[in-house]
Amino acid sequence: MSESVITVSNLTRDYGRSRGVFGLDFEVKQGEAFGLLGPNGAGKTTTIRQLMGFVRPDSGSARIFGKDCFTQAARVQRQVGYLPGELALMDDMTGMAFIRLMAGLRGQRDLSHALQLCARFGLDANQKIRKMSKGTKQKVGLVCALMHRPRLLILDEPTSGLDPLMQNQLWEILLAEKQQGVTILLSSHIFEEVERLCDRAALLRSGRVAAVEQLGELRTKASRVYQLRFETAARAAVFAEGWPGAAAKGEWVQLRLGRGEPVARLLAQAAQSGVQDLQTRQENLEDMFLRMYGGQDK
């Protein structure tokens, strides 16, 4: 069994008025890509800030490589490549000067990998940071997180500000890091991002872990979503009454069928009821989490 790189036990930080995180329990294994999923305000960044030792928990513990994340923060941070959700860069410096500064703080002299990353991201690091777009600043942050080849990456909303081409470039880099045994903790509110990279994911809602799922196993439970349009809203409502879990909205009906459920009967009954249009798609990760664990965060 792989050893745990991150261990979170009953972690709590209460900011009042139901803000914070409460009783979190999860672990991330060596070489695993683990997702923290949830809407904005669910507690993802608060969790990560405690992992990085920036915030002392009210109770519980967080450990990385066996070290306490708060009391041994400096030792933990040396082994982590960290991208914060909100970058704080030095506007009067160039991107390269900032990269050199961060490398120097780690005692890193060889910048060859940093230069390779700049090339991969198409980053002109010689311009002043204050003149950079949000996406360009994000590239500087990613280079700083990756350039020292850390054993663990902690990335908070890493695609923020990146165009689709650069997002794909980032996923290629992260998948290569994963193949080399690097452990990755990825925070995102975009389910497709987590689904693309991660082995497991924790769903956070209102500062609590609603579920931890093995994504490979979860995909095997995916249903198929059917959307049917009828001539009138009344016909749609009548049709929906005959199918458990079906929901009618105006002239449209949406329902899900799992593997082995009666697709032929659905199509035959829809034809008899005068269906005008039919659309179908495979249930994605977001659909499954919402179906299994509830809707919007409160």
UniProtKB/TrEMBL annotation:
It comes from the Bacteria. SMART domains: AAA. GO terms for molecular function: ATP binding; ATP hydrolysis activity. InterPro entries: AAA+_ATPase, ABC_transporter-like_ATP-bd, ABC_transporter_ATP-binding, P-loop_NTPase. Keywords: ATP-binding, Nucleotide-binding, Transport. It holds the Pfam family ABC_tran. Transmembrane segments: none annotated. Residues 6-231 form the ABC transporter domain. PANTHER family: ABC TRANSPORTER ATP-BINDING PROTEIN, ABC TRANSPORTER ATP-BINDING PROTEIN NATA. This is ABC-2 type transport system ATP-binding protein. It comes from Allofournierella massiliensis.
